[in-house]
Amino acid sequence: QVQLVESGGGLVQAGGSLRVSCAASGRTFRTYHVGWFRQAPGKEREFVAAIHWNGINTYYADSVKGRFTISRDSANTAYLQMNSLKPEDTAVYYCAADFNRVGRRTTDYDYWGQGTQVTVSS
Predict the structure, then answer these.
(1) pLDDT of 68-121, one tens digit each?
(2) End-to-end CA, the chain
(3) Contact 14, 6 (CB under 8 A)
């Protein structure tokens, strides 16, 4: 079992930066793949970025490529660094983890956090 807790969300002006974190319980988290998703009001949850358990292979949605960076430490935390933020990045950001799959679909992940709100003002 893995429990995930996001933090670091908040209000930022367009063009600014924010880093959200995903803290995990469990000693085996380092063997799990991690994904970040977001959900804006009235929209479906969408893929943002993912990172292989090895910490090397990363994947991004086209909408955030070049602006966001996903990373993880050797223990129990994953991060999403968000630069050059735009109002359309406003959403609740969720981290997710799975032992077997590093994918772009919500169904690729078994474990989810509760989300953290990111609001970008224009």
Answers:
(1) 999 999 889 999 999 999 999 999 999 999 999 999 999 999 999 999 999 999
(2) 40
(3) no
